[in-house]
Amino acid sequence: MIHRFTIADTAKGVRLDNYLAETIDELSKSAIRKIIDLGGVHIDGKRVRKCGRQMVLGEKVELHHDNQPLEPFRIAPEHIVFQDKHLIVLNKPAGIECQPTPSRYKGTLYEALQIWLDRDTRFGRKLHIGMSQRLDRNTSGLIVFSIHPNSHKGLSHQIQQRSMGKHYLALVEHRPDPPQGTIRSFLAKQRRSNVMKSVQQGGREAITHYRVLTSSSRLSLVAVRLETGRTHQIRVHFSEAGCPLAGDIKYGGTRSIAGITFNRQCLHSWKIDMLHPVTSAPLHFTAPIPDDMALQELDAAGEVHPPLHTLKPGDIII
């Protein structure tokens, strides 16, 4: 949601928070102050985070609101999967942006990680974040950051060379046919709809390997391994295959299935295999499947076969 205004003569000198509270009926002054603090207000194209900033005649004001919680996300020990002086691996909750957006800077994963690292005095230096990969806001699970200049190049190289093993679990509608395979296409963003789509010309190559682990008539749990990492790649490939992710409204998914409501696309980055970018030691990380993917409820209801509780970790590898 975006609110746009041009400051008139009558608003000159008015505080930013007071002006927005008087102008936008559907947001309380408390909410507006929180949105300003998060970084959701821009004046003449620049982010402004001071509630008391006075309005100037002719200024263009935009308030961006993403309808997400207004309390900023903060990293806790349970989000840390691994950390040394070169790398940090996080288990990202769904609903958190990886990097700043027009709606917020404060509370993004990047900003929360910077605060976490600024408090870490073990290494005797300021730790700088290098971001080589991203997850969609509503995708949960593992994400790796470099926190030392010596590690960023090696981490980026593994991603560019496609040598990092990136494994996901996706809950999709229906049953992919065939039950195991590879989806290849070239993806490009559609300007009008702002969605990604497979195209015949142009675009960037996207390769998705998958295997159905268990399924019912309405849902399938699918193990996915990415060879490339394009924007919305898994979501687009399964949507175009007629099996959109459960809860993924943007790409044709359904919110309520088998009596269960899914409030986000059911996609989880569950396993990463890589080499340490400095020591070359093999590293393997996993993140448990979050409760909001409702796998336990589906299992208890007998919705999938074979039952989910009979799956072993080795069954999930592609």
UniProtKB/TrEMBL annotation:
Residues 14-80 form the RNA-binding S4 domain. It is an enzyme of class 5 (isomerase). Pfam families: PseudoU_synth_2, S4. GO terms for biological process: enzyme-directed rRNA pseudouridine synthesis. GO terms for molecular function: RNA binding; rRNA pseudouridine synthase activity. The keyword Signal does not apply. Responsible for synthesis of pseudouridine from uracil. Belongs to the pseudouridine synthase RluA family. NCBIfam families: rluA_subfam. This is Pseudouridine synthase. It comes from Desulforhopalus singaporensis.
